[in-house]
Amino acid sequence: MTEFKELGLNDDILKGIKDLGYKEPFPIQEAVIPVLLAGRDVVGQAHTGSGKTAAFALAMLQKIKPRNGIQGLIMAPTRELAMQITEEIKKFGKYTKIRVVTVYGGQGMGIQLDALDRGVEIVVATPGRLIDHLKRGSIELRDITHIVLDEADTMLDMGFIDDISFILDLAPEDRVMSLYSATMPTEILRLSEEYLNNPKQFLLSADDLSGDGIDQSFLVIKDRDKFKYLIDFIKPIKRQCIVFCSTKYRTRDVAKFLHQEKFNAVAIEGDMSQHRREQTMGKFRSGKADILVATDVASRGIDVPTVELVINYDVPNQELLYFHRIGRTARAGAKGKAITFVSYSSVGDWNIIKRQIKVPLEDLNQKMGIQISIPDPLKRQMPSRRYGGQSRSNYSRGGRSGGYGRSHRDGDSRDDRGGGRKRYSDRGGKNSYGGRSRW
Ligand code: ADP
Ligand code: MG
């Protein structure tokens, strides 16, 4: 058994880890930490819930010096994830003198400016707000030595890539940079070569996106029957559950329904005020709410260890998102369950996802004896959509409308920045500006 100590971490950091009760490093931590400490770039692909945050955060904490300017920059796609990473770093770094701040849209500038004025060594940011700070000079990147892109395949995808390259151009060239995600399509890996210097890559096989511990099943039903089944599935839940919906509107609707049925549910979607988003996440993380109804704003990175069930109330718009959504359960080696509701019109989308699930998948129609009677025109399996068969070669920049499939019809954003935002567009095409967030 390898111990954290053997990875080259110093006593202050080891004390922080001990306080958290971590007994031994998880495999991605054991793999990545020594490489980062040696100053080499990394691509770290590992399953959801496998401890990628500590992999980059521990190495960064060790390499950064107190009172030496902003040396560490971590970027994440959503505000909630950025805040979560900050909280983790504070715990790991409890016995170090390293200070960390979250820079994200929706929060007043004042709080962030005050924190920056007092001095910080690590900034965890969503790209839009970081650019605001860079433009007004409240953050400078000249002292940066370590950069992380968490959920890197999203960060290098079209919705964010212009912002990311703008930011990276301002940082010194001789930095250690690393990328993390549970999904790492070939196109993204290729693109990452522009930013990384001879990285050491830790990759999963394209057949192994599900990981262990999640008991996956699906049920094909009429859209109007979904609510009834939702209630049946969440009633027996003892701990917590996340229900993912395809749009903000559906998210609000499902949450309303659940309230009417006296469930203790909270909702999160990108049009809510930042105050409400934080309230929601606070209630869910503290266990004051049992059910989180969410758009894909909560599909990546969010770590709430007590989630035992994920319900895809709607089939995700993009195949890799399926693995991120279900990965909100079964964190850190725990067990969990994921149930996907497939409406008749989503059967084609679901079949695309299903082909990528290489672990046993339970057919609840069979198990529960529920007949499907799909009207003829909808039986088609969407032949127009290209499918490469393997996730790495199939990250849709080509065949489908782009990395996030249809998700941007619900609005779009680079991150959750208020104000004008770039809309998702074809690679090389012009960006237009819209006002609502993607999720
Ligand atoms: P990922 O980013 O890979 O999805 P996280 O970094 O969010 O995963 O970690 C998932 C969970 O595992 C968190 O609750 C974290 O506290 C826990 N964890 C991380 N490393 C360890 C470890 N070495 N031992 C025990 N728990 C750990
Ligand atoms: Mg993560």
Question: Order of strands across the biggest sheet?
Answer: 3-4-2-5-6-1-7
Radius of gyration: 21 Å
pLDDT < 50 runs, ≥5 residues: 385-435
> How large is the share of residues in beta strands?
15-25%
User: Architecture of the largest domain in CATH?
Assistant: 3-Layer(aba) Sandwich
The largest sheet, given as strand count, sense and whether it forms a barrel, is: 7 strands, parallel
Number of domains: 2
Assembly type: single chain
Total DSSP helices: 15
CATH superfamily of the largest domain: P-loop containing nucleotide triphosphate hydrolases
Please report the total strand number as a whole number: 16
**Span between N and C termini?**
42 Å
CATH topology of the largest domain: Rossmann fold
CATH class descriptor name of the largest domain: Alpha Beta
Helix/strand-derived category reads: alpha/beta
The ligands found in this model are: adenosine-5'-diphosphate, magnesium ion
Approximate shape: globular
Mean pLDDT: 88
**Helicity, as a percent range:** 25-40%
Task: Give an account of the 3D structure.
With 439 residues, the chain is α/β, with parallel strands linked by helices. The chain has two domains: 4-204, 3-Layer(aba) Sandwich (Rossmann fold); 211-378, Rossmann fold (3-Layer(aba) Sandwich). Helix content is 33%, strand content 16%. The protein contains 15 helices and 16 strands. A seven-stranded parallel beta sheet has the order 3-4-2-5-6-1-7, sandwiched between helices. Strand 12, helix 13 (319-326) and strand 13 form a beta-alpha-beta unit. Helix 2 runs parallel beside helix 3. The two termini are 42 Å apart. Bound molecules: adenosine-5'-diphosphate and magnesium ion. Adenosine-5'-diphosphate (ADP) is lined by residues 22, 25-26, 29, 46, 48-54, 303, 305, 331-332.
